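A reminder from the course coordinator: this example appears on the midterm review sheet, so study it carefully.

Given structure:
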């Protein structure tokens, strides 16, 4: 049975049984390596990612594995430290001898290990957002989350519909934040958007009122905050505390209930682009993603609580990797890499993936939903 055809069944815990071939390799586990920020400031990314990988690998193994082979997860917690990520990926490649790597919670960690995986020739599916992970295309590197460029484009499309032409930009100083800022600046002119302020804050800053006061003195019609972690929640609160009533946009870096919890009532009315996973039950019955999204959401929440798009990225990466192994009928790294690159019409939580030699993500702008926070929850902007 092909994994793609059984993605929905997998997501709701129904049996996954893949073929009966590969008897000679039956005793050898398929080794999936991962390095995630399970602790530290980026734990809201890594924690649901690790839980997702463990949950689905346990389910697959309980149903007999892949072609009779069990799947083994080799995991290291980076704490969000890019230097630790490099050390752990070296260990995954040289000591653990994994077949595929699915991981990298942050853009900084993913970018830091790319030279290693390219030199070693091992398939790597990143779970981070920066467009620079896949542009220019690197032979062995892929990713599942939407890019920061796509987020900027989706936001600017919404601003165009609202007649907003002047925007104040504020961003953090992390890898994701900087990349998002650069993409926001680069794409603005294409949407007739003028950036009238460009403020930044540090990862450990606990108050951004000084930057926002400067923004308040401009003729901005909206504020765009590109960042993740606690920073965007602080910005959101500070905006309201200063009495600023401009529309506030956030990036997909805050697409989890954790942001709403941290920002509280100040998050009301905030808009952001995000995967449809957050609003799965609001999608029409005809949407091809709906059964996959609801399946993943229901299975994850039954065990761990509120779902986040970040865990969904891990689901997508794992399933794309396992389908590639299934199609290749092998864990030969070159064959698996080639099959990942051929991923086509794969319904994941982030969208329907169609990869190619020139596109190692495979998602279009239509994979994003524009959401608005209302009454402490996500709603689709009509």
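Designed residues:
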């Amino acid at each position: 049975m092909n994994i793609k055809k059984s993605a929905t069944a997998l997501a709701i815990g129904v049996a996954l049984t893949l073929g009966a071939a590969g008897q000679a390799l039956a005793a050898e586990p398929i080794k999936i390596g991962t390095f995630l920020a399970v602790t530290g400031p980026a734990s809201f990314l890594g924690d649901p990612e690790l839980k997702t990988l463990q949950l689905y690998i346990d389910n697959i193994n309980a149903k007999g594995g892949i072609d009779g082979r069990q799947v083994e997860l080799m995991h290291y917690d980076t704490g969000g430290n890019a230097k630790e990520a490099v050390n752990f990926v070296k260990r995954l490649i040289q000591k653990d001898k994994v077949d595929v790597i699915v991981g990298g919670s942050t853009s900084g960690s993913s970018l830091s290990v790319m030279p290693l995986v390219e030199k070693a020739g091992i398939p790597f599916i990143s779970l981070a957002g920066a467009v620079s992970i896949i542009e220019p295309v690197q032979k062995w590197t892929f990713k599942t989350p939407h890019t920061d460029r796509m987020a900027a484009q989706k936001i600017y499309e919404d601003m165009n519909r609202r007649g907003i032409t002047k925007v104040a930009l504020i961003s953090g100083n992390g890898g994701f934040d900087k990349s998002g800022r650069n993409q926001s600046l680069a794409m603005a002119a294409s949407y007739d958007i003028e950036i009238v302020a460009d403020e930044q804050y540090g990862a450990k800053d606990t108050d951004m009122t000084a930057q926002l006061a400067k923004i308040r003195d401009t003729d901005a019609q909206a504020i765009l905050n590109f960042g993740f972690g606690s920073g965007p929640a602080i910005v959101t609160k500070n905006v309201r505390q200063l009495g600023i009533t401009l529309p506030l946009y956030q990036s997909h870096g805050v697409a989890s209930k954790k942001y709403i919890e941290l920002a509280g009532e100040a998050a009301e009315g905030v808009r952001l682009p995000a995967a449809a996973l957050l609003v799965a039950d609001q999608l029409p019955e005809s949407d091809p993603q709906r059964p996959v999204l609801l399946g993943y959401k229901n299975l994850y929440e039954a065990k761990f609580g509120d779902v986040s798009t970040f865990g969904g990225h891990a689901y997508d990466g794992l399933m794309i990797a396992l389908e590639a192994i299934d199609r290749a009928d092998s864990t030969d790294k070159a064959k698996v890499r080639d099959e990942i690159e051929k991923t086509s019409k794969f319904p994941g939580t982030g969208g329907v993936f169609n990869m190619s030699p020139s596109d190692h993500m495979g998602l279009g702008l239509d994979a994003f939903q524009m959401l608005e926070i209302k009454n402490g929850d996500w709603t689709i902007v009509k």
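Residues 148-280+368-380 form a domain with the Rossmann fold fold (CATH 3.40.50.2300). Residues 1-26 have pLDDT under 50 and may be disordered.
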